[in-house]
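Lay summary

Proteins are chains of building blocks that fold into shapes. Our project writes down both the chain and a compact code for its shape. Here are two examples, one after the other.
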Amino acid sequence: MAAPVTIIDISYVAAPAPAVPPEPIKLNAMEALWVVVPHLQHLLLFEGDKQLPPFDALLQSLRSSLAATLASHAPLAGKLHHLADTGDVAIRCSTDDEGVKFVAAESDADVRSLARDEDHDVHTFERLVPELDMGLLPAPLLAVQATRLGGGGVALGITAHHAVVDGHSLWRFVEAWAAACRGDAPPAPPPVFDRSRVKLPGGEELTRSILRKYSPNLPSASMPWSQPEDHRQVMRRTFALDTQDMGRLKQRIVRLGEAHGAPLRRPPSRFVAVLALAWTCFVRSKAFAGDENVCLFFFADARDRLDPPAGADYFGTCLTGCLAKLPARELHAEGALAAAASALQGAVQRMVEDPLDCWPGWEFFRVGADFSDRMINVSGSPSFRTYQVADFGWGRPRRTENVRMNREGQVALVGARDGEGVQVSVSMLQRPQMDAFKAELLDQLG
């Protein structure tokens, strides 16, 4: 049963007037895809020790540093609007806007259990991120929640609109906010909100066609096709693979490829290695017919893949899709890890050669409908240094989690707390299958 969370204060943090852009910032086609699935939510858990300041002082530091950060991230204090005269959706900022919602709360939930248990307390996690109604435009873009927890800990929850923030942008924002809270200089380079950085064939008309297809009822931003509401039954677990685990896994993949006459085209990256492991464990934890294809879908950052590149400083959502699939029998075979890694490298290579080949990536919902429970959907990346960038002056978080893992077969990746390993969070509907997934993972890493 979820621990109750009591809201003790709601305030708003506005962007400084000189920083507010005077003109609307129109979404591009890559961002338009996310208008109907807007919530991007992450949770940072800090255990109580001598580094944590008193809660009131902590709240004041977070508020003042957020205000300072909005000087360079002012669009996040605005709202997403439907421009009915043109059919566009755009970020509009105004000095009359309330700003970013800042929630202060408290709960008896034990921070040690939340931060250290392998199984997620899903219901409590969901109460530790702020609620935002994004289903009707104009819709807010950002809210934060700081919750005092039992055991002397603190939870910091972030809800952002996925149409204007992807994982790369979110963690760049957290890095800037944390630096301001510590009193350090902001990370360089500063964010760029210029949507003309992302050049796609079709330009604004492509964006409008995407909006008509996926958001036909604007200003209502409800999803036009049904999704099963089973997230309350989904269980989630987090596994941490340290540097030694990753080293052994990569070596094993290379050996298996050579032993079965199918050497990899290059040594596997952390990303490829850990997804090959998750894909194999997923298939072996469930009952699939040998000739059934099982898919793995992931979004890839396209900033530096576009022509011309959008640039690492581009602040927005800039993602393309990658899809790999293999028959279940190949993922049961002795060389499964190498076969999975090879298929993933192929998907990545196709994306590198043509970043728009598998775009719009939103078609994974259609693929998901075809493959039902035979697909893994991956979010995040080991390159996200979530623990390193989220030091607000009282040390790294004990745990960070993607709260929006509501479907069977979702996998969320971030860099591990040790800085070199990978944190893997997995959601599944049935405990026996989750137990089988874990047993297979430990066996593969053995």
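And here is the second example, written the same way.
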Amino acid sequence: MFFAGLFAIYFTLRSTSPELWADRTELLNVTFAAVNTAILVASSFTCQMGVFAAEDLQPYRIAKGQVNAAGRRRLFGWGMVEWFWLTFALGAIFVSGQVWEYAQLVAEGLPISADSYASAFYITTGFHALHVTGGLIAFILVIGRAYAVKNFGHKEATSSIVVSYYWHFVDVVWVALFLVIYFLK
């Protein structure tokens, strides 16, 4: 519901101030944002690979060429922990990219206080970045839990699945934001 409200801000702004929208969207680096988006989308795939490993109760790396409990070969031989660390890294790169983009826009004369478009842009993308950061913290907690338990079981696997649901939701929201912010001119 919260993000629906943020989308409403964008659509209202676009309909009431088309000239402001046109001027400000010219400052956006669509290529950089597309690469950053691809990084976040890739993190959904790595997250899901971690979930598959967790479902097979394989929190850690198994020897290359070994098969998991279901008789399937593991990609790279990785377990949940390795996939979640990779997902964490990709998510951190995405948030760092957002920070870099903010710095570039401020340098180009678009601080949050510039106008209603700037406020909507920073609030919308900033709240999304906060949600991604929350997901990164959740990944650290799940990875820590995998190291802390004696036997990685159904309860720990369920935690990784729940975190993946959140992560996939955050990714889907970003894809929608990306299309609205960067392509809806």
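What can we say about the second shape? Confidence is low (pLDDT under 50) at residues 63-71.
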